[in-house]
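Is erythose-4-phosphate placement plausible here? Inputs below.
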Amino acid sequence: MKFFVDTAETKDIRDLLATGLLDGVTTNPSLIAKSGRDFVEVIAEICALTNTPVSAEVSATDTDEMIAEGEHLAGIAHNVVVKLPLTLDGLRACAHFKRNQIRTNVTLCFSPNQALLAAKAGATYVSPFIGRLDDINLEGSNLIGDIRTIYDNYGFETQILAASIRTANHVTQAALAGADVATIPPDVIRKLVQHPLTSNGLAQFLKDWEGTGQSIL
Ligand code: E4P
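Reply from A.M.:
I modeled the complex. Tokens:
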């Protein structure tokens, strides 16, 4: 499963790229607002840090305006992926970008039927939101599994990008359900490596090793 980081904070992106674990970046209007930065400027800066896919979301709601905004965003760098909402206008824009070989991320997906439509429109990625379904007492990870089954039934190439991930457990659930990608907040990526038995075990090994008085080099 590929890991994208879900942030517009360039410091976090730089730190995580250095781990070699990162396969892409996603942003959304809320993350851009949180960064306090100019949208186009921050997307250009992120794209200068990495050749991996960087999702940048349109703010228009009408197909023609989405196309104009998406073409502008795609012109920033070769690795920009145009992020479009899962509406009929968004799907029409998605089909346009597919015809023009511009990659898309169809976002705000909450049902298997919506994901089916995104695939039919030629989306590169579809973003089902796990956390927001959990917020309303539904099992977000079931949606990932349902989309996996549907896409495999018909050989759709749209990649399932598990989004709205809030916990390390969401990452496990997305992987078990067959997501192609998970977009994960920086703090959750950092938590994935942590386990108390690893830290305790390492402390004990280091103590015992010190007792031997040996050194490897
Ligand atoms: C990413 O593409 C999504 O916009 C993001 O994961 C949404 O996460 P949230 O539901 O925690 O805001």
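Short version: The chain is about 50% helix and 15% strand.
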